[in-house]
Amino acid sequence: MTNDARQIATKNSLIYSLFLNAKGRVLSDTIIYHVNHQDHEDPHFIIECDSKCKSTLLRLLHFYNIRKKIQISEEPTLRVLVNLNAGEAEQSIDGALFTGKDPRAVPDWCSRMLYCPAAAPETAYVDGDTLYRRSRYCLGVPEGVDEFKLGESLPLEANADLCHGVSFSKGCYVGQELTARSRFVGVTRRRIAPILFESSSKPSIIPLNSPIFRVSKADNKVVGSRPVGWVRGQEDPSPVLVPPFQHYGLALLRLAECAAAVTSGDRLVVAVSETAQVSEAAPIDLSMTYIVRPFAPSWWPEDIAIGLPRIQPFLVASSTASQ
């Protein structure tokens, strides 16, 4: 666990944290709630994670459960609601177990609520996931198995340090050596950042981890012998998107190389067809690719992703969003 659990020693508190394997790679991203459960006198914690890695996280917690008095079980009755209207006061509903601001360090972003589905009709939140995903992508906040590429991602590359998800003073924990060394070096060369797909029509589904290449504006040839990034997330093509199709995603980027491409006017492209040929020797067929524009969210510190444009993206507000 990358964060310091002492931050949630009191009830009605929450933190953002990652769980790592012994090699320092991310197994699960989580939000941990210390809830005021009236039926339990002992401390009661709820761990929110991607449902795809639920069984993996349960096995990990049982493996390290040395104190047999600690009971670990699945909680299938709870759901999460997200309020994207940061200017509103935190609102609750009958039956809500917890309400609080999202612990990730994005200023004035959203609040979260744990609730039982019977307490709030889901029909009121049918577009919630679409809006929540767009807000995360515009702000550079990855979440879940697909975007983290669990078992391979490093905490700092996934912006866990920027999101207040890593404690560098708590002492040793499983997988901390690589994270501590990266912090000591002081340079994180790759990070997950927002990208904007340039397209005059609705985009197709792009496979996750599709490589991104730098292409010279002079001759359309690939610059360098390796990708400068990989697609980690993409908005779902849907009726919500209207011309000119502002279509956002996330990508793990080599920051310096992408900044150099932006400065020189070169393109960053994603090949979306198996027939697209990508090599240094021949020009790339841009009709078989998507052009992407990377940017740094305005809330990132100025010394992160130097050279990438900083923009305040257009976000569609929503009173509440289901997840």
TrEMBL record:
Coiled coil (residue ranges): none
SUPFAM superfamilies: Folate-binding domain
Gene3D superfamilies: 2.40.30.160, Aminomethyltransferase beta-barrel domains (3.30.70.1400)
Protein's name in the database: GCV_T domain-containing protein
UniProt cross-references to InterPro entries, sorted A to Z: YgfZ/GCV_T_CS (IPR017703), YgfZ/GcvT (IPR045179)
Organism taxonomic ancestry: Eukaryota, Metazoa, Spiralia, Lophotrochozoa, Platyhelminthes
GO cellular component, one term: mitochondrial matrix
GO biological process: iron-sulfur cluster assembly
